[in-house]
Amino acid sequence: AAGRRAVGRGDLPASINLLDRAIALLPPEDPSRLHLLTELGEALVQGFDWDRASRLLDEALAAADRTGDAALRAHAALGKLDLRLDAEPDRPDSGPNTFRSEVQGVLALLEELGDEQGQARAWRLLALDSYLRCRIAPAEEEMRLAYEHAHRADDDLLEATSLYVLAQAAFWGPAPVAEGIRRCEDIRERAGDNYRVQLGALHALAGLHAMQGRFEVARQLGEQASALAEELGPNRFAAICSQFLGVTELLAGDPAAAEARLRWGYGILERTGERGLRSELAANLARALREQGRDDEALRLASLSGELAVRDDLYAQVERRGPMARVLAGRGDTAEAERLAREAVAMAQPTDMLNMRANALADLAAVLRLAGRAAEAEPLLGQALDLYQRKGNQVSAARVRDLLG
């Protein structure tokens, strides 16, 4: 229980240590020990220790085969699926719905077993898959279901995970900014002493206030989030915080500050060998570098983002194309620039990430204007303006109005 509380607070090393000690105290075939293997495996996935996580989950699967423990097999299977989200960036054996169908198969078994904790874990994975595909509204509903099952299971860790993701979704998803601020303030109050949930609410609030042009408030919230991330140590949650604070500085028109924020998180991920989230930060860095006129570096980071990106991570695939297209258009390679920008628009269009869709349209418009085709750019800017306004992103909407002016 102490180990689960520790990871809930964001203290992964303490959680892993406590779970290790609990496992060592129990006989090899004790059912409690075997189920703790799956919890330790989940903590190790979050801590980027994928090799050890895989070994422990394989041990749990083998034990489930020996004992016929269906619940143990289901939890271990969910652990292996969780591992695939982070440790297998290309997922070469996966069709577009293979991952979801596998999770749904395990979920059906857990429903039959009446396993509330297992159902919470399954819904969490479905939500993360939707998130990866930039379908944020479905991800929010799936994460709410994860929260409800976790609450019934009295699982503080999964409740915290659900609240953390719901706070981030308020920034990335289709919820208007004002609604997102209310949600994050509510989550912040409910967080109590759960540092990870507080961190998620703070950095999401920083980005949301920045969209409204309240940069002083946004930076104050960002400093609080940064201090908390430093306290929690260099882990995945600190890297995610750096991404939000980097985007906040881009909204504020300070790409150098954005670069500093993003490089901190990128360095954490680079040292651990993580790829998926690092591809997103590389794409964000490419945009910050291009806005500083450092075009060669921007192209290098955009290309690296493509090499690192999970196949299904639409955000990285869309975001990296924008700065790359703008750099190439500025250098006169308008045909390649237009191809990349139109690909980004097509990829973003089916998603509900309004800012991402608007950014892609604005990038394409910029490419067309550089090619001397301003008349074609104007309707694209109009579409971008509509999307920014729907989100409540007043800062980006004002910039587009200036271009249309």
Overall description:
The protein is mostly helical. The chain contains 21 helices and no strands. Helix 6 (98-113) packs antiparallel against helix 7 and helix 13 (236-251) packs antiparallel against helix 14 (255-272). The model is unreliable at 6-10 and 89-94 (pLDDT under 50).
Tell me the distance between the termini. 60 Å
How many E strands? 0
Q: Look at the structure and give the mean pLDDT.
A: 92
N-to-C order of helices and strands: HHHHHHHHHHHHHHHHHHHHH
Q: Can you summarize the main beta sheet? A: none
Strand content: under 5%
Q: Tell me, what's the shape?
A: elongated
**Count of DSSP H/I helices:** 21
List unreliable stretches of 5+ residues.
6-10, 89-94
* Cα Rg: 22 Å
Helical percentage: over 70%
Look at the helices and sheets and give the structural class: mainly alpha
